[in-house]
Amino acid sequence: MPTDPHVLFAASGPLAMLGWLALALSPLAPRAAQIVAGLAIPAILSVAYAALILVHWADAPGGFGSLADVMALFTDPPVALAGWLHYLAFDLLIGAWIARTAQATGIPHLLILPCLALTFLFGPAGFLAFLILRAAFTARARMIGTPQ
């Protein structure tokens, strides 16, 4: 595994994008998309995250005690990269959950694509958009008597 944070950063983006592409195309192969985006890629990102934290955490400035401490913590390139990998892994896991939940509840895949894009770019905003979409579908199903 390369130890240069810039090399790891450059490799992490395309890897995460592969997972998001799998989710976007998940109606074609839902099980494969869940394995790739909901398990394999987040696991790889998590291994890199854990390695970075184990090696660099003790020497990093700052901490979690205040906003100033958090800002100082992310001035350390390996720790900032670990934070980035954390975002990539967890956002992808949420994206996989969105795709899986939408499929299980009958929400058309085309409607979740904006939620997936939002989750990729802005994490919680995409999650919130999906919760609203799912609530709307659940309410609609109750109104017309369709089981959800």
TrEMBL record:
Keyword Transmembrane helix: yes
A Pfam family: ABA4-like
Membrane-spanning intervals of the chain: 6-28, 35-58, 78-98, 110-133
Source taxon at top rank: Bacteria
Record key words, sorted: Membrane, Transmembrane, Transmembrane helix
Protein name, as recorded: ABA4-like family protein
Species annotation: Fuscovulum ytuae
